[in-house]
Structures are given as structure tokens and as C-alpha cells.
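Sample entry (267 residues):
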Amino acid sequence: MRNEPQPAAAELRIAIGQNPDDPEAHLYLGRALAALGKDAVGRNPPANLYRGRLRKEEIDAQFATARSIYKQMFAGLSNLQAHGPGGAAMHIGFGFLLLYQSREEDALEQFRWAAALDPRSDVVHRSVCQGLGESALLHSPKAAQKEFDEAVSECELAVTLGPGRTENRLELAYVLAAQGKLDEAQRVEEEAVQLAPNSPSVRFVLGTIYEQERNYTAAADAYRNAIALAPDNAELHRQLAGAFRRQQDRWRDQRISSCDRAGRDRC
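Predicted structure, serialized as C-alpha cells:
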């Protein structure tokens, strides 16, 4: 799944211990810690306030480390290397780092560099799509539309270049759903299910799209199918419980609305 910060943070700490000069490990650990902080704010327990301050210091430290390593990597490349396919991956990593530091315009410049440097790589175009989509979510709907359109184009190109790679369709579905184009997102996600019927992540994303369509029965079925493939995944069980709860809430609201129209004495 896209959002599993706690296990991700633990694995990234192991990766950093094994290779402390990997900028992406520091970058994504910072992001995972930021997601944990966001969860804590959402629950708002006072005990987490001090932990939150400590976490922010570590997040800043991980991003600073990643930035330093990226700068060293760029400095160690010749112009030809820095502006070729190998450089594209570093531009993407550096772009995400800038994005997480709320430097959206600088991040977009890095993503567009990457797409220009390695135009035949579906992985590059998918990463550019993800970066543009995440940047768009930080802007007002009107300002974000251009970035969303550009993100869709990048993801569609990724699908064309790598038609057998499920991740390309997953990212396209995310971006379409974020724009509210749920029918298109569902179509793309169902194609992904055909490509990877045994992937719990694909079933999970399909379930989230059904939920946005308020089709909670279909969402629950998608989550059940995902759980059958990954029975120990706690996030899937939480999503299934949430779909059940939202379906019950909807039934209750429909019943109350029917009673209001018919008169309370008839309910």
C-alpha cells in the first residue's frame, strides 16, 4: 500500500544502517516520519506533542542528509552523466526532496528535467507523474489543474512505454481519482487487476476508488479480496471496517431521510 509509515520507517532505518550514503533511504524515512506525525496530529493525543517535536527534528535531519548526499552526487558527475539517463533518477529524487520541503516550483523543475533526460523510461515518467500529482494537491483547484493534466499525460506515457507494469496504471488511477475522474480511475484500476490479480495493493486501490464513488459494497468486496491475498495486513482490515461503517451510516441517513419525507409516525 502507499501509506504504511510505521513498518516503512523501521525498514528504512535498517536500509540506512546498511548503506548510510543512499539519499533515497534518508528521503523516504523523512517522509515516513512526517506521515507518522500527521497521524498523531489527527488523533491529537497530548502525550504525542513532545514526541512530535522530536520527530520534526529527525525529519529535518533526514531531509538535510539526503540533500547533502544528492549535492555530492551531482558534483561528482560529469555534465554528460548528470544530463543523461543516470542523472534523471537523481533529478527525480532531488525533486521529491524539494517537494517535501514545500519548494514546489523547484521540485517541478527537477521532475521536468528528468522527463526530458530519459524520455523512453516508463519509470521516470511515472515518477514525474507522481511528483506533479503531489504538487498539484498542495495548490488551489484552479492552479492545480495544469499540473494534474500534465501528471495524467506523464502517467499515460508511462503506461504506453511500460504496458505490463502495474505500478504505471496504479499511479494513473491515483491522479485521475484525485481530480474526481472516478469512472476513468476505476477503468484504469480494473485493467491493473487484470494485469496483477494476485496483488493486494491493486485490490486496495480499487477499493478506495469505489469508496470515493460511495459504492461501499463494492469497496468491501475489493478489500476482502485484498485481505485474502494479504491476511496479516492491518491496514486492509481497517479499510474494510471503515467501508462497513460508512455503508451503515449511509443506510441510516437514507432511512432518516425517508422517515422525514413520509412522516415520523410511519417509520
